[in-house]
């Protein structure tokens, strides 16, 4: 007797558990970190995952993935990420390996360093925008891939090294002072 076209394969319990565990880990890793409204963050926040800010934030925000600044959010300080989407307000600099997208109603007061840039009608920019060349992007990606968030990236000066590559002109000015 041959199995029919639509017969179901029997799985061992260990195979089912392995699939469940893999799916749970994948879902957790894909789920962004969300800092909700009516919160305030001050300091350095770094993550391998995407992060969505819905509140007030002051400091340095680093993500190996995407940073989303929600409609009512205010971020004061530096944002460093692979992708940045702004619907709220940013007062500070944005350092992005990929694309910065400023949506309708988004406001930025600061410098933008990015590989790609898009702003929608209704966005408000008081910014200078620097589009990075491929050599700079490649250098940044090498350093970004080597940052281990299990250790303190700020103490190891890796974040400062990234910013220096994004903005070599201002780094040279600081060195002269």
Question: What topology does this entry show?
Answer:
Blueprint: H1 13-30, E1 33-35, E2 40-47, E3 51-53, E4 56-63, E5 66-69, E6 74-86, E7 89-91, E8 94-102, E9 107-109, E10 112-119, E11 124-126, E12 129-131, H2 134-146, H3 158-166, H4 168-176
Parallel strand pairs: 1-3, 2-4, 3-5, 4-6, 5-6, 6-7, 6-8, 7-9, 8-10, 9-11, 10-12
Helix pairs in contact: 2-3
> What is the tally of beta strands?
12
Uncertain stretches of 5 or more adjacent residues: 169-177
The helix content, as a percent range, equals 25-40%
Structural class, by secondary structure, is: alpha/beta
> How much strand content do the residues show?
35-45%
- Largest sheet entry: 12 strands, parallel
Supply Rg: 21 Å
Could you report the average pLDDT, rounded to the nearest whole number?
79
State the end-to-end CA separation: 85 Å
Q: Helical region count?
A: 4
| Shape designation | globular
Order of helices and strands: HEEEEEEEEEEEEHHH
What attributes does this structure have?
12 strands; twelve-stranded parallel sheet; alpha/beta; 38% strand; 177 residues; single chain
General description of the model:
This protein is of the alpha/beta class. The protein has a domain at 33-132. Helices cover 28% and strands 38% of the residues. It has 4 helices and 12 strands; from the N terminus they run H-E-E-E-E-E-E-E-E-E-E-E-E-H-H-H. It has helices at residues 13-30, 134-146, 158-166, 168-176, and strands at 33-35, 40-47, 51-53, 56-63, 66-69, 74-86, 89-91, 94-102, 107-109, 112-119, 124-126, 129-131. Strands 1, 2, 3, 4, 5, 6, 7, 8, 9, 10, 11 and 12 form a 12-stranded parallel sheet that branches. Helix 2 (134-146) runs antiparallel to helix 3 (158-166). The termini are far apart.
């Amino acid at each position: 007797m041959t199995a029919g076209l639509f017969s179901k394969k029997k799985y061992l319990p260990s195979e089912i558990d392995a699939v469940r565990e893999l799916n749970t880990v994948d879902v957790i890793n894909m789920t962004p970190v969300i800092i909700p409204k009516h919160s305030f963050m001050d300091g350095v926040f770094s993550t391998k995952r995407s992060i969505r800010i819905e509140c007030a934030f002051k400091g340095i925000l680093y993500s190996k993935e995407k940073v989303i600044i929600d409609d009512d959010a205010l971020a004061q300080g530096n944002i460093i990420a692979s992708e940045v989407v702004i619907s709220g307000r940013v007062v500070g600099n944005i350092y992005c390996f990929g694309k910065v997208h400023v949506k309708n109603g988004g406001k930025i007061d600061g410098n933008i360093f990015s590989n790609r840039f898009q702003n929608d009608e209704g966005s408000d920019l008081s910014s200078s925008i620097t589009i990075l060349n491929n050599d700079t992007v490649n250098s940044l990606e090498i350093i970004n891939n080597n940052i281990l968030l299990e250790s303190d990236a700020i103490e190891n000066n890796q974040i400062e090294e990234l910013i220096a590559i994004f903005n070599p002109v201002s780094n040279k000015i600081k060195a002269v002072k």
